Amino acid sequence: MNRPSTQFVPGLGRALLTGMAIVALSGCATTSNSTEAHPDDPWEGFNRGVFAFNDTLDRYALKPVAQGYRFVTPDPVETGVGNFFSNLGEIRTTLNSLLQGKGANAGASTGRFLINSTVGVLGVFDVASHMDLMAREEDFGQTLAVWGVDSGPYLVLPLLGPSTVRDTGGLPVDMYTYPVTYVEDDALRYSLTGLRIVDTRAGLLDQEDLIRGDRYSFIRDSWLQRRRFEVSDGELGEDPFASDDFDLEGTDFDDAFAE
After folding, report:
1. Which of 183, 178, 201, 223 is closest to 85 using CA atoms?
2. For a Cys staple, 15 with which of 97, 118, 141, 183, CB 3.0–4.6 Å?
3. What is the rounded distance in angstroms from the CA atom of residue 6 to the CA atom of residue 204?
4. Would you say 13 and 140 are in contact if contact means Cβ atoms under 8 Å apart?
5. From residue 155, how far is each of 44, 179, 197, 224, 240 by CA, in Å?
6. Paired strand residues for 93
7. Which phi and psi (to 5°) does residue 157 adopt?
8. Beta strand pairing call for 154-157 and 161-164
9. Angle at CA 205, nearest 5°, toward 204 and 206?
10. How far apart are CA 53 and CA 49, in angstroms?
11. What is the pLDDT of residue 35?
12. Alpha helix locations (H) across the chain?
């Protein structure tokens, strides 16, 4: 079953969701001393500490819950839950597409939201994709990039995972352009939040075998490459997450993955 790998914490934007999704892939992560500083990661010491904290939380709390959810939830239901939350993200894509002057993408995203919210029963069924109506996801971090804001250093956020200084600055806007933020009933809002987190983590369980070598470096390099692809609208080439092949440093693949 194909599952999206770019959603995790509800209401915090695609950059944040991508970061948390990849942090969740780290399962049993170990850290190692890097002999050569990464040009995009001048705060590596701090980032590794936060990474270790996030990994411990995932290993002992989130991953077991996600495994239980995967076990008891039929695949069609799990797919429908993911579709529902993805559909809500179309609103953020529309707004950021307009801010970036991408009218065609804004129109496609709006069309997807309208079709999936009606014919697709509140987004549970992705009817728009079957109609070949596609839109590139956009968030405020990407909008800032279009406006000329530099990405700044790589940054691992507590609980929220991989980011950059620029993307971190865009999180409040992403949060307030996500519909679940405006659900007034606290119990319902928290329930939707928890469901989205667990559903996304469950969708990543099958991808953990992709990790090789130093987990921190692998996840950092993969996330940065994917983020550059998103910001450039794919002008760097094919999506590195579209297959199991990642254009990373050779040293990231020295060790076999071990649980």
Report:
1. 178
2. 141
3. 10
4. yes
5. 8, 26, 21, 11, 21
6. none
7. -95, 140
8. antiparallel
9. 95
10. 6
11. 54
12. 13-24, 44-57, 63-72, 75-99, 103-118, 127-130, 140-146, 165-176, 186-203, 215-231
Q: Cα–Cα distance between 171 and 141 in angstroms, integer? A: 8
Encode pLDDT of 99-153 as tens digits: 999 999 999 999 999 999 999 999 999 999 999 999 999 999 999 999 999 999 9
Q: Which residues does 50 contact at the CB level (< 8 Å), separation at least 6?
A: 156, 157, 158
Structure tokens at 170: 């865009």
In the structure encoding, which two tokens stand for residue 167, read together?
A: 């993307």
CA atoms within 13 A on the CB side of 24: 30
CA 30, CA 250: separation in Å to the nearest integer?
Answer: 18
Question: Model confidence over 43-61: pLDDT tens digits?
Answer: 999 999 999 999 999 999 9
- Secondary structure of residue 155 in the 3-state scheme: strand
Longest CA–CA separation in the chain, Å: 55
Question: What is the residue whose two structure tokens read 């469901």?
Answer: 195
| pLDDT less than 50: residues of the chain | 1-34, 239-241, 243-259
Give the three-class secondary structure for 153.
coil
For residue 172, what pLDDT is reported?
A: 96
In this predicted structure, what is the pLDDT of residue 222? 92
Q: Are 29 and 216 in contact (CB under 8 A)?
A: yes
Closest CA to 8 of 178, 187, 247: 178
Residue type, position 62, single letter: L
What is d(CA 51, CA 45) in angstroms, rounded to the nearest whole number?
10
- Confirm if 20 and 9 have CB atoms less than 8 A apart: yes
Amino acid at 196: R
CA–CA gap between residue 93 and residue 99 (Å, rounded): 10
